[in-house]
């Protein structure tokens, strides 16, 4: 495991985006310092792009946008709100502006 102090709490993979609810635990990471969210996302994007390119036989194919949206969960209510949002996101896909293709 690359980042032992990071726990994936909830996720959903949508046709054009992904939601992740990560817990960055404040515990000893051994010789490794605590990773930043930017480092975690960089590794995630790099590994998934490499795997997809190997699977499709393509090289240099861009899979992810450069940036990402982040939100720091402040309390239990905020956590539950985002958990529910991720859980219910697939049901809202039909109303997404990209549903059925790129506009």
Q: Would you give an account of this structure?
A:
It is a single chain. The protein is α+β, with helices and mostly antiparallel strands. The chain contains two helices and two strands; from the N terminus they run ββαα. It has helices spanning 37-56, 76-88; strands spanning 6-13, 18-24. The chain has a two-stranded antiparallel ribbon. The chain is flat. The termini are far apart.
In which range does the helix fraction lie?
25-40%
The overall average pLDDT, rounded, is 88
Biggest sheet character: 2 strands, antiparallel
**Helix-and-strand structural type:** alpha+beta
Outline type? flat
Count of β-strands: 2
Lateral strand order in the biggest sheet: 1-2
Radius of gyration, in angstroms, nearest whole number: 16 Å
Helical element count? Answer: 2
What share of the residues does DSSP label as strand, in percent? 5-15%
Distance between the first and last residues' Cα? 39 Å
Element-level helix/strand string: EEHH
Low-confidence stretches: none
Write the layout of secondary structure elements.
Elements: E1 6-13, E2 18-24, H1 37-56, H2 76-88
Antiparallel strand pairs: 1-2
Please outline what is shown here.
The protein is α+β, with helices and mostly antiparallel strands. The chain has helices spanning 37-56, 76-88, and strands spanning 6-13, 18-24.
